[in-house]
Amino acid sequence: LYANSDINKFRQYGLWERYAELYPDNDLIYTVGVSDYHRDWFFAHVTRRVSETIFKATTWQIIFPLEDVIPSANYTMRMALASASRAEVQVRFNNPNLNNPHFRTMAIGTDNAIARHGIHGLYRLYNIDVPSEWLRAGSNTIYLRQSKHDSPFQGVMYDYIRLEGPPQRL
């Protein structure tokens, strides 16, 4: 990489490989209100290379507080993807070990935007219904697992992730 060269500063092919350097043992954990997306959020949710030909699925965590949870209400998680390349995102709330995720995208994407640094990805928006039973007052965690892991190019680039509460009653 040419990180310290003004002439070559745009020649950064292979940045997805930095994920394993930045997170060698544990995956990304982002805490709302504490973390800074400039330094604590990686540009692509990719696989982790464990050897020359073996890649591992990765699970990111988003930790966030909820003052209280409105019983029997429906929340909505909006997950917008700027690109996807032969990926599958699985979403779990507060339990990373559920056999079946609360939501999954299924296999998506052939736009190869990770290798091209996001210049031509196909935009996708998922609106995920989140029953109040999946949440709790206090600390909550959303687990995002990119489960496809045959190559370094499999993954997604998030545009935004937003959790919306139910309408407030007056």
From TrEMBL:
Rhamnogalacturonan lyase domain: residues covered: 13-163
Stored Pfam families: CBM-like
Family annotation (SUPFAM superfamilies): Galactose-binding domain-like (SSF49785)
Domain of life: Eukaryota
Protein name from the UniProt record: Rhamnogalacturonan lyase domain-containing protein
Organism listed in the record: Opuntia streptacantha
